[in-house]
Amino acid sequence: MEPLIDHIVVDVRDRMEEAARRYRALGFTLTPIGRHSLGSANHLAIFGRDYLELLGTDIPGGALRPDLAGFPIGLNGLVFLAREAEQLQAAQQARGVPVQGVLNFFRPVEYPDGTRAHARFNVVRLDIAAAFDGRTYWCEHLTPEHVWRPEWQSHANGATGVARVLLSVRDPARQAALFTRIFGPAFVAEGSDGRCVLKAGEAVVECAPHAAVAAELGAAAPDPAGRGDHMALLGLRVADPVRTAEVLRANGVAGVEVTESRVRVPAREAMNATLDFVQ
């Protein structure tokens, strides 16, 4: 089964309004607030084939979904694409992968012209104890036409899709073994500095030792906030990093690091999520 990233989640807990303001300043076009039948709320930044999700509650001080309540603000969801959730769940169980049953839910959608619809999903979750200190799951879109809309896919920062996810882990070999069991050995390789690399279509998921991540990100790194193994960085593709940097500076984003091929936003400016915009 080829791994393809469906979306990446930034947990924002009850700071949804702040998160939306910050991510709009980062140059993202966000969907209107959505409210899941599971009891959570979100904004999405939709790209060509995948997307970024700000997830939490839109009620300041409000209760969080039980599966989100134990996690701090920051990158927390590594989500792969599922096409047949029931078959995927059965196949992973047969491989000895600890997955939960298929969960179905929906989110009402209202378009600018007043039209209303329901975006519907099936998800298959990996048991939390099996992976990093976060959530890994698969998402099957039953109504993709209610997610990928042209009016939501153009971003001032030029982002077009997920390029890289970096996890900070104690034991990359353990993560490599899990990815190999899930997807097969053809998609998993060894990288530099003791890293393991999962090839996921046009994107890569890297699992690097804590020391290597700290050395790479420096002051731009997120606060683990009590987590052990955790998602540290999200890299997004852009056509022109110089133009991206101009947008960020014009919007008052502080601490931006710029090279010819990359723009880095420190985690403190993006709800405890380090962001790279890469050519």
Structural class: alpha+beta
CATH topology call of the largest domain: 2,3-Dihydroxybiphenyl 1,2-Dioxygenase, domain 1
Q: Count of helical segments?
A: 6
CATH class value of the largest domain:
Alpha Beta
User: How many domains, in number, for the residues?
Assistant: 2
The stretches of 5 or more residues where confidence is low (pLDDT under 50) are none
Annotated CATH architecture of the largest domain: Roll
Across the major sheet, the strand order is 2-3-4-1-5-8-7-6
Mean pLDDT: 96
The CA-CA distance between the termini, in Å, is 28 Å
Assembly status = single chain
Number of strands: 16
Binned strand content: 35-45%
Report the order of strands and helices: EHEEEHEHEEEEHEEEHEHEEE
Proportion of helical residues = 10-25%
Protein model, in words:
This protein has six helices and 16 strands. The longest helix has 12 residues, at 172-183. With 279 residues, it is of the alpha+beta class. It starts with a strand and ends with a strand. It has two domains: 5-152, 2,3-Dihydroxybiphenyl 1,2-Dioxygenase, domain 1 (Roll); 161-278, Roll (2,3-Dihydroxybiphenyl 1,2-Dioxygenase, domain 1), CATH 3.10.180.10.
Helices and strands in order:
Elements: E1 5-13, H1 16-25, E2 34-35, E3 41-46, E4 51-56, H2 66-69, E5 74-81, H3 85-94, E6 103-110, E7 116-125, E8 135-141, E9 161-169, H4 172-183, E10 188-190, E11 196-200, E12 203-209, H5 210-217, E13 230-237, H6 241-250, E14 257-258, E15 262-265, E16 274-278
Parallel strand pairs: 1-4, 5-8, 9-12, 13-16
Antiparallel strand pairs: 1-5, 2-3, 3-4, 6-7, 7-8, 9-13, 10-11, 11-12, 14-15, 15-16
